[in-house]
């Protein structure tokens, strides 16, 4: 038997929790599905120093706990686990968690985007200890340090260029012999005296002393030979993947999979479905911008429900 809800929020993190806070304060009694990683990517981030209101910084998991607690205080209910299927073709919308069906008058999608990683064990071991997927978030911690960026597209070049503000040297590691980035971005990187290149190379292992990164073992894509590169940090520049698989064919998205919204609102291509956070943001991917979009989505949902809720259930 279906459980009826006025507003379902799919996904946690700054966007989902902020949307829940605003929706709960508007007496919408939201039900939030936290996913398999409650709190999102910030739960694997150590120090967060660029979120307003915390002059001494705050740990990522602690920030997420505070956000969740604030939303819970005003009546948000939480379901641990991920949504496995949705049907947004007609109202009420249908949302499944395994075999349990929920029907919702409105839905906010805040499933985020996942950084692409190399998939080696040592990379995971040193996440938050020198391995990062966000230059804007963590670049400040690498002042005067030699670091590396993996990738060859615009993302990698943008990350590397940004990191030269802090690092003494940035080495771009690319599996091919030429950048895939746009010409203007590639030219800018080659002209930067603080950027070096390792061509036809992949990261075979992240080296460290248990407390932080001390270097990388690099492997040639030409002859398979290996050598070590001394660096104090490694940044992923191979892009992000929006968590939108269950919405394909139901919500409009760009060629990469980010949801399309009717900016400056959070309205998606389906009336009554709204998007917040990194799932609809290929550009900024910051906790503060995600939280702001969560606020927007909740306000949009509240207004939409005020106009349409009665007719849905008649």
TrEMBL record:
InterPro entries reported in the protein's UniProt record: FAD/NAD-bd_sf (IPR036188), FAD/NAD-binding_dom (IPR023753), Ferredoxin-NADP_redctase_2 (IPR050097), Pyr_nucl-diS_OxRdtase_2_AS (IPR008255), Thioredox_Rdtase (IPR005982)
Cofactor(s) this protein cannot do without: FAD
Keyword Cell membrane carried by entry: no
Xref: SUPFAM superfamilies: FAD/NAD(P)-binding domain
Matches recorded under PROSITE patterns: PYRIDINE_REDOX_2 (PS00573)
FAD/NAD(P)-binding domain segment(s): 6-294
rRNA processing in keyword set: no
Enzyme Commission code(s) on record: 1.8.1.9
Spans through the membrane: none
Pfam families from the UniProt entry: Pyr_redox_2
Catalytic activity: [thioredoxin]-dithiol + NADP(+) = [thioredoxin]-disulfide + NADPH + H(+)
Organism domain of life: Bacteria
Keyword tags: Disulfide bond, FAD, Flavoprotein, NADP, Oxidoreductase, Redox-active center
Annotated Gene3D superfamilies: FAD/NAD(P)-binding domain (3.50.50.60)
First-tier enzyme category under EC: oxidoreductase
Cofactor note: Binds 1 FAD per subunit.
Record-stated family: Belongs to the class-II pyridine nucleotide-disulfide oxidoreductase family.
Subunit (UniProt): Homodimer.
Record-given protein name: Thioredoxin reductase
